[in-house]
Structures are given as structure tokens and as C-alpha cells.
Amino acid sequence: MSTILKVENIRLNEKFDSKYDAIKMAGELLVAGGYVNAHYIEEMVKREDLSTTYIGNDIAIPHGTESAKNDVLDSGISVIQVPEGVDFNGDKARVVFGIAGKNNTHLEILANIAVFCSDMDNVEKLVKAETKEEIMDLLGGI
């Protein structure tokens, strides 16, 4: 398992009043994991304001703007399970991935998540996972 996902970067059964609350938690988990500095969270919010990071299949992948690349300390992801969903501009995200990619690895990370989540069975497994370890096992290839 790559160190881009650590068990401490996963949250289960979260509820949010807004997508911004979800984005901030995703960013805070990245900060706590040592992947980004705190300024990156602001850049994640700015990126969402430019265009939604909802990608379909109940998945959102908030990440920083291009100008935030200096805020990235290491490549990493955070995963937040939101069984009831959180509204991303009219779309409901039930899994929110925060991502940070050092040296342009964010495109590879995005692609790996998108491929995995293109299968709704995989998304349902993430939403229904009862432990952080189940999520770690499911995302082992990312």
C-alpha cells in the first residue's frame, strides 16, 4: 500500500451542511497527514468556486488550484464517506476524496480514483464500508 492514503486520513459516516464543510474537512485531513500546508485548504475552496469538483457517480474530488502547487508537501489523499450525501451544485456526493499531488502526480491520482469509481459497485462498497480498513483494502490500488 502506498503512503498516499493512511488510515488516519479516512472518515466514516460524516454529515455536512454544505460542500464547503466537506472540502474543508478533506483539506484538514491532508494538512494533518503532512501532505499540504494550511493555505492549501483556501485553494481547494477557490478551485471549487471556479468549477465543481463533482465528477459523477456520487464522487467529488476537491483539490487545490494550479497556484497551490507550492502548498503541496507530499502526494496524498483523504477519503470522507458521506452516506446521506452532500450537495455539490445539485449533485449528491457520497464519497469525497481530497487530493494533493507533488510534482504533478495529482493527474495520476485523479485518473486512478476516476477509474475505480467509474464502477458504481465500487462506489457502493466505499459508501457501505463499516471500517477504515475496508476502505484501505478497496483503495489499495490507488
From TrEMBL:
Position of the signal peptide: none
GO MF entry, a single one: protein-phosphocysteine-sugar phosphotransferase activity
Start and end residues of each PTS EIIA type-2 domain: 3-142
Keywords on record: Kinase, Phosphoprotein, Phosphotransferase system, Sugar transport, Transferase, Transport
Gene3D superfamilies in the cross-refs: Mannitol-specific EII, Chain A
InterPro entries per record: PTrfase/Anion_transptr, PTS_EIIA_type-2_dom, Sugar_PTS
Pfam families: PTS_EIIA_2
GO CC terms: plasma membrane
One of the protein's GO biological processes: phosphoenolpyruvate-dependent sugar phosphotransferase system
Annotated function: The phosphoenolpyruvate-dependent sugar phosphotransferase system (sugar PTS), a major carbohydrate active transport system, catalyzes the phosphorylation of incoming sugar substrates concomitantly with their translocation across the cell membrane. The enzyme II CmtAB PTS system is involved in D-mannitol transport.
Protein name (Swiss-Prot/TrEMBL): Mannitol-specific phosphotransferase enzyme IIA component
